[in-house]
Amino acid sequence: MATIELSRIAHTYEPDSDEPVYALKELNLVWNDGGTYALLGPSGCGKTTMLNIISGLIRPSRGNVLFDGVDFTDLPTSKRNIAQVFQFPVIYTLMTVEENLEFPLVCRRMPKKERSRRVREVAELLNLRDKLKRPARKLAPDDKQMISLGRGLVRNDVSALLMDEPLTVIDPQLKFEIRRKLKQINEHYGLTMVYVTHDQNEAMTFADTIVVMNDGEVIQAGTPQELYNRPETTYVGYFIGSPAMNLIDSRYVDGRLETAGGSLPVPEGVSIPPDVQTLQVGIRPKYVRFTDATTPETLSGQVNMVQELGNSRVVTVEINGEKIRMKLSPDTTIPEREVRLSLPEEHICLYADGVLLCRDEDNVCLSVPHQPGSEAEPMG
Amino acid sequence: MKTIYLALKYLAILLWTSFVALPFLWALTTSFKTANGVTGGATYIPWLQYKPSLEGWKVLVRTGGQGIDIVGPYISSAIVTLSASFLSLALGTLAAYGLSRFSYRLGFLKNSDITFFFISQRIMPPIVLAIPFFLMLQFLGLLDTIPGLILVYIALLLPIATWVMVDFFNNIPRQVDEMAMIDGCNPIGAFVRVILPNSLPGIAVAGLFCIIFGWNDFFFAFTLTFTKTQLLPVAVVALNSSVTPWWSLSASALVSVAPLVIIAFFVERFLSSGKMAGAIR
Description:
Order of helices and strands of chain A: EEEHEEEHHHEHEHEEHHEEEEEEEEEEE
Structural class of chain A: alpha+beta
CATH architecture of the largest domain in chain A: 3-Layer(aba) Sandwich
Radius of gyration of chain A: 24 Å
Number of strands of chain A: 21
Oligomer: heterodimer
Strand content of chain A: 25-35%
Number of helices of chain A: 8
């Protein structure tokens, strides 16, 4: 068990280039002991690079990796107490399931008796008990991935389990089951878990803390609720939640926010800086409501499209060219054409040049204007 | 239409088989003939067309000062081929693993250039190498000795072993090594415990190539030896005196091909057993 800290880490795969492209731009992150984290971001945003830096498969171009405050940057992978599961299962083809699970313990010269006890325990947990004697290469992909996971779990010295999109090869039904099992393991062993994914649902259901990355930078780290309700940047608002957050262009005129089809009051506790280029009103589709009132706070528009999603319906309303999406319960009656929408003030997030303008009570907000990587972002 | 296609297919197979197999049949029948049997046109059926004799086979083993002894060259050839192949495989496999998994820089030279350097050793015609090798062995005092030949053969076989193994290692996903290191092996442990056992098919292929090239080489065995050391190909060719003893020449040719046939048979069995499926996914 350990707290893992990435201090001023940056990495490029082309160190000899004159203008190297950084896969990971300078950042600071702390992974608290026993936490469950999801690294969320599009493909190629540096998630895997970050995992490989923690496990030591990659030596970062700059910065230090600290385990409980001790610098591990130059320690080889085999000496770090990290277990990692890759996107596709890696098994030792010539060994049986049992030998596969045993392998990390053999490498650590654990006595045979202790070895088989632990292997049996883990096999029980992962439903591999009756497959122990079979050649590992003959198993189905999901069982192979369980072996990969099991090799991490048999060790008693593991301080963190890193998973790089581990459920790609697994059926949707089983995914749910395995995620639940991982949660159990986290609670049972107190293992820090870092889970890389580009699927927000996976991230939301698995992790206490979600770290959103884009283009080699950490955009926001917070609980699923924080990321959902108060995205720090328009990118997070767009990336998290389905459908994405509505972003409505607006102008600050006479103390109010002029938008297409109406004008909104400035949310309480928000002050608008004078030199803003673009100002956007953000609101989650589920908070947008139909209304009969015709006050200036309501926006008028036309229903453009209705999508049935079974447990909900998504209505797109067009307001002077702007499209606003609403997520409604399936039994909501939808007015024929002309509608007025109310955007509750407490759910409005205001973005100046893509960055959230903080309210006084916002604890997600950074104290300085958002500059990724410029300061430590403690999580959890 | 289909019958014509089938007929043509079998005809092609038959033609090629004859082309490959008939020389062996010819050598086989000839090896049981005597001086009388080989004169007066080709004959194939024993007892009917010629009187079979073991004369050709008997002279291969020298008994009481009689015959031409190919046992000695046979053993020398085996020692040289096996030692050179083993050392080439060992060095080549290590080199190939390094070239496949680590990045090297030597000025502007990168891994691919180093790999090409290995292969380029085989681009030159052997005759170009004959004089340098001769001078080097002379300098070392290893001309006409088995260790000298082993050294030269390693120079010839190492590129083949390295080349085959680089390709093979490149096809083993890096994640397997990485996983082994995460599981607690150091890089050498990952290689020995995980990669090497998985590489046996590649090693078998590389080894087969080494043994075939080493065993069959005539040129260097001929130019770098005089009287003390004689390898099998040279010994077989040396049978060719003023009167060519076709019968013992055929017998010795068959005997020298036999080990390769046996090895190839087992390696082929081993390769087709499909031990490699499913290392990842």
